[in-house]
Amino acid sequence: MLWARLPLCSHSRPSTGGWQPLRFDGGAFHLKGTAKLARALLVLRLCAWPPLVTHGLAFQAWSQRLLGSRLSRALLRASIYGQFVAGETAGEVTDCVQQLQVLGLLPLLAVPTEEEPDSTAKTSEAWYEGNLRTMLHCVDLSRALVDTRGPARNSLMQLKVTALTSARLCKELSARIQRPAGSSELNPERLAEAMDSGQNLQLSCLSTDQNQHLQASLSRLHRVAQHARAQHVRLLVDAEYTFINPALSLLVDALALRWNRPEEGGPWVWNTYQAYLKETQKRLERDAEAAHKAGLAFGVKLVRGAYLDKERAMTQLQGKEDCTQPDYEATSRSYSRCLELMLRRVSLHGPLCHLMVASHNEDSVHQATKRMWELGIPPDGPVCFGQLLGMCDHVSLALGQAGYLVYKSIPYGCLEEVIPYLIRRAQENRSVLQGARREQALLSQELWRRLLGRKV
């Protein structure tokens, strides 16, 4: 049952008795063809099988040897690649996005670049410059795919910082930031000035080579943000591992100083906050208040987080205190508190505060839609929702049909590059994949209904 649209445009506080929750019961599956529903059910069941996720790259190599490259590629394209990837060419991506837009969904393009620390080719300046060109093209494609005259007004895309700067440098910067004394040189203002002016940056805490790489990295980030602003595309910066997140936040803060000023129409640069980290709520409160005091717009992508197992393993190896929430329930409570915090700020600061509720959890989505109604935040306003392409369609479709802004995170690129990326993402999102049993049940129910010719 979809609630009435009219009260959502009111900024007065309505009675909670008038709110009715969206139904995530698969009713919106009637919008999708039978072949796509069958593929989704097959792929989600395969991805919920732990051995396939753990040994995905080995399975891929084995299938190529056994079936041959051509047949192996064809099977992957018809299954996992076809389910989770928009395509390789601009035409294929456009077709995928047009199909989503018919369903009331919007694209959030993601370039699947992965640094390999042991690879000279994938840690060279030439590699980062190549990624810069790819990111600039992604900005253009993101702009071309969405009619910015519509209610969304601006396109969104994901930006991975370690595609443009070395994870090793980020690790070094993070270590220095986290020292008790820190480093007075490592402040957003100085980096923002270096971005804007292009002047050579010389930090005493870094070597000559590190300074040169940092300067080049700042230039790349600045060029992407500048181009994104010109093309009306908002950049959602991906969170990565905890041991480099302090450096990522420093770089994002520097970009925000330049591109999230109200006169620029920001926020153009958003950071991602991971609720499975113990410090996230305090950090979110601190960052939101700092942005407000500095007169900056503030953009947030709120996620539960995908690196839990690896974070805990690294913490144990280093003998440090565990920085993660003890269990999924604690993570959900953290997410709920962060969500409430941000929705209140959106209701107070309007267009200067934007939020993406990036979650596959039905309870979190219900909380967000109910609080938006109570706070008078319109469904096509500064709060949007995000889920992965090929997953959680029973939630995405229901939201889209109800008039909310819903984005599907869409990787694109050639099969050889994207499949290893997908396997790594699957390994990081095991709990999400294994928790998709409800979606599998709804898909199965809809397919049986069609097979037996039953009416809705």
From TrEMBL:
<keyword id="KW-0285">Flavoprotein</keyword>
<dbReference type="GO" id="GO:0071949">
    <property type="term" value="F:FAD binding"/>
</dbReference>
<keyword id="KW-0274">FAD</keyword>
<protein>
    <recommendedName>
        <fullName>Proline dehydrogenase</fullName>
        <ecNumber>1.5.5.2</ecNumber>
    </recommendedName>
</protein>
<dbReference type="InterPro" id="IPR029041">
    <property type="entry name" value="FAD-linked_oxidoreductase-like"/>
</dbReference>
<comment type="similarity">
    <text>Belongs to the proline oxidase family.</text>
</comment>
<keyword id="KW-0642">Proline metabolism</keyword>
<dbReference type="GO" id="GO:0010133">
    <property type="term" value="P:L-proline catabolic process to L-glutamate"/>
</dbReference>
<dbReference type="GO" id="GO:0005739">
    <property type="term" value="C:mitochondrion"/>
</dbReference>
<comment type="function">
    <text>Converts proline to delta-1-pyrroline-5-carboxylate.</text>
</comment>
<dbReference type="InterPro" id="IPR002872">
    <property type="entry name" value="Proline_DH_dom"/>
</dbReference>
<dbReference type="InterPro" id="IPR015659">
    <property type="entry name" value="Proline_oxidase"/>
</dbReference>
<feature type="domain" description="Proline dehydrogenase">
    <location>
        <begin position="195"/>
        <end position="434"/>
    </location>
</feature>
<dbReference type="GO" id="GO:0004657">
    <property type="term" value="F:proline dehydrogenase activity"/>
</dbReference>
<keyword id="KW-0560">Oxidoreductase</keyword>
<dbReference type="Pfam" id="PF01619">
    <property type="entry name" value="Pro_dh"/>
</dbReference>
